[in-house]
């Protein structure tokens, strides 16, 4: 998958070389395929080599990782990648674009919504207190559950009873996911919420999650840490 092509074209124009490509961001690319052709003087061609590969290779690697995650899920659950927000500010926008070019969403729910993470739960003293604090906002709530204040099943029940829209079991432990699922179904609350799973998951974990009781998975670092897509810059005499 390609990402960074638009930015590369902009940099090429600033560098003083012409840039031509029939491809686009978010499109597929095959091994050995020409991504773009540049024309310019030797000085500017060498400058372009220093700049453009960096714009394309890493971003395209992330986009490819995102698409692979999507393919491995096979449409059986939503896959999101929230780890872009942990990237350095200077590249955060590029990483976010690359994830999007690969076809992944970056949020568990469409805006507007309230995200209650583990630190809010800790600060406010528990899931119940955290849900009470955000209730006046009257927006869908996505809450991160880690079983730190109570057993994870009890946290899931508390959040569901207080109207949370999405419960994210963020421990990476399948036993915790099952405990939350069983508790919610026992109390007839499962159909009222979306159940998500996260916690240092890897791409190779996705197929095994297909038969489990989940609506969404946050794949996180496995996508943003994807290796560069191999690319090379070859000079050809006209």
Automatic annotation (TrEMBL):
One of its GO terms (cellular component) is cytoplasm. Belongs to the NadC/ModD family. Transmembrane segments: none annotated. It comes from Desulfoferula mesophila. It comes from the Bacteria. One of its GO terms (biological process) is NAD+ biosynthetic process. Keywords: Glycosyltransferase, Transferase. The keyword Transmembrane does not apply. Pfam families: QRPTase_C (PF01729). This is Nicotinate-nucleotide pyrophosphorylase. InterPro entries: Aldolase_TIM, NadC/ModD, Nicotinate_pribotase-like_C, Quinolinate_PRibosylTase_N_sf, Quinolinate_PRibosylTrfase_C. Residues 62-231 form the Quinolinate phosphoribosyl transferase C-terminal domain. GO terms for molecular function: nicotinate-nucleotide diphosphorylase (carboxylating) activity.
């Amino acid at each position: 998958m390609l990402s960074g092509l638009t930015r590369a074209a902009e940099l090429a124009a600033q560098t003083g070389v012409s840039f031509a490509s029939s491809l686009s961001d978010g499109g597929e690319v095959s091994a050995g395929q020409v991504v773009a052709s540049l024309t310019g003087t030797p000085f500017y061609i060498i400058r372009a080599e220093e700049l453009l590969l960096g714009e394309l290779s890493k971003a395209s690697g992330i986009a490819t990782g995102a698409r692979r995650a999507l393919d491995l899920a096979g449409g059986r659950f939503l896959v999101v990648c929230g780890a872009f927000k942990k990237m350095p500010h200077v590249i955060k926008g590029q990483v976010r674009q690359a994830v999007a070019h690969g076809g992944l969403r970056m949020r568990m729910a469409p805006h507007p919504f309230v995200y209650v993470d583990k630190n809010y739960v800790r600060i406010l003293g528990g899931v119940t207190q955290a849900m009470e604090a955000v209730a006046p906002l009257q927006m869908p709530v996505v809450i991160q559950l880690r079983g730190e204040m109570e057993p994870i099943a009890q946290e899931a029940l508390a959040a569901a009873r207080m109207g949370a829209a999405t419960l994210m079991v963020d421990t990476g432990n399948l036993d915790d996911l099952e405990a939350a699922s069983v508790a919610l179904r026992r109390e007839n609350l499962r159909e009222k919420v979306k159940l998500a799973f996260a916690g240092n998951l890897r791409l190779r974990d996705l197929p095994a999650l297909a038969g489990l009781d989940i609506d969404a998975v946050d794949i996180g670092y496995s996508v943003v840490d994807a290796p560069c897509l191999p690319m090379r810059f070859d000079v050809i005499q006209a």
